[in-house]
Amino acid sequence: MTEEKSKKSQVDKTMETAVNMGLFSKSLANKVTIITSMNQFAFKLFRVFASRHQRDSKNMCFSPLEVFNSLVMLLIGAKGATELQLEDMLCLREFNQQARYDELIDLIKWIIKSNHEIMVYGTVIYLDHRLNLNPEYLEKLKSIFEIKPKRIDFSGIDNVIYMINKDAYEMTDGIIEGVINRKDLQDDSQKVNLVISNAVFFRGYWLFKFGNIHKEQFYYSEGMKSANIDMMSHIGYHRYYYDKQLQAQTVSIAYVASDIRMVLIMPDQIRNEAITLVEYLNSDKLLQLFWNLQNQPKSLTELTIPRFALEAHKVSLQKSVKQMGARSIYDPEKADLSGICSNGRVHLTKLVHKAFILVDERGSHQYTKKAHETGRFARQQIENVKGASNTREQSDKVTVHFKANHPFVFLILDKITGVVCFCGVFADPTEILEVVPEHELSNEQITQLLAESDQKTFMEDASIDSTSSNV
C-alpha cells in the first residue's frame, strides 16, 4: 500500500510539473489528481483490452473517459469494500467528498461541453422501478453528470432491450444501435436491477482538410497480409516526434474549433504489431509523449493516413472490470451500493459500451482558404528543397514523411487538460466501414441509406471545402 501511494504521489508530481512548465493550463492545477486518475485508468483499461485482443489483431475503439464516468456514478453510491475496490480501480483515493466532486464537475464541463460538437456521449443508468432511490444520490448524479436514472421494469426483458437500444440510437443521432441484446440479460430477470449503457460517437473536422484520396496497400498481421484501402494525404505543418523507447513515430493532428488532438503512434517496422505498444503506455508516458510533441517545432510534413469509419463491437465490461479489481459490484450478495437506494440490495448487472469514430478528409468551412493557401505554400517549399538538392537525405531534413500504412495506436485527447477521451488500435483494414462520397451515389441510393436504421455506410458532404482538394 505504501508503494502504491508513493507511485501515485510521483505521478501527481509529474502532472504538477507539466502544468507548471506550461504543457497544460495552470487554471487546472487544482484538478491534477483527477486528471492523473482518469489517464491512469484509461491505460489500465487499454492494457486489459489489448491483452484480450493481442492474438486476433482486431481493431479497438472505446472511450475510457466515459467508462470512467460511468463507474464514478456507482462510486458515489458505494460503501465499504465496494467503495474501496472502485477507488483502487479508478486510481482515486478518498473520492466521496464535495471538494473532489467539484473538481470532477469542472473537468467534465471543460472537456465535454467545450467539445460537444465533435463528441457525442449517451450514457444512461437503468434502475429497477421498485427501488426507492436516495435523494442524496439523485442530487449527486444531477450536479456532477446532469443525468437522472431511468426507472424500468426488468421483468419484460424484450421491452428493456428495445428501450436501451432506442435510447442509444436517439442520443447518438442514429449512429449507434444494438448496444445490448437478450444474451446480456439472460440471468433471472428478478436479479437484474441495475444496467448502465454507454454509446459514444466521435466525428471532428480537421483544422486543415486532407486531399489526394487514393488507393494504397495497408499491411497487417505482422506484415503477412495486405489490403488496398482508401488513404488520404495532406502536406502541411504538424508536430512530429520519434520516440526511441517505443521505436515508434508519433504525430499530432489538430481539429478545428476545439482543443481536441488526435495523436497517432505507429511502430517503425511493418511487422511489429501496434497493439504491443499499449503495454508501454501509461499516464507518465503520455505526459512525456505529449510534452515532446508540443515542444517540437512544427515540421513540414507529408501526412498520409487511412480514411475509415470504425465501429467497435459492443463491449461488455464485466470481465475487464473484475480483472482490474472491482469484483464485488457484480455480486448480488457482496455488492454494497447502499448509497443508491434505501430498500433492497443493488448490484451492477451490465455495463455495456459501444463506440464509433469517423476519420475522413473533411476540414472546416471557415478554414477552407487558409488550408488551401497553406497547402500551396507547403508544396512550394517541398519543390524548392528538391530543386536545391537531388539527395533524399537533404530533402528529408526539411520534410517529414508520416505514412500510416500499417497498424497504429490512436489517442484522441484534450490538449488543455491532457485527458484521453477516446483511444484505440487500427489493426485490420478489412474490418472497417466504408466512407462513400455522396456524389458517387444515386438519388435512390441516398434515399435508401437515409431510410435504413441499420445503415453501415456513412456519407461525406461533397460540398465542403472543394477548393483545397489534392493538397
TrEMBL record:
SUPFAM superfamilies: Serpins (SSF56574)
MF terms (GO), sorted A to Z: serine-type endopeptidase inhibitor activity
Top-rank lineage group of the source organism: Eukaryota
SMART domains with a match to the protein in the record: SERPIN
PROSITE patterns noted in UniProt: SERPIN
One GO CC term, this protein: extracellular space
Protein family: Belongs to the serpin family.
The name this protein goes by in its record: Serpin B8-like
Organism: Dermatophagoides pteronyssinus (European house dust mite)
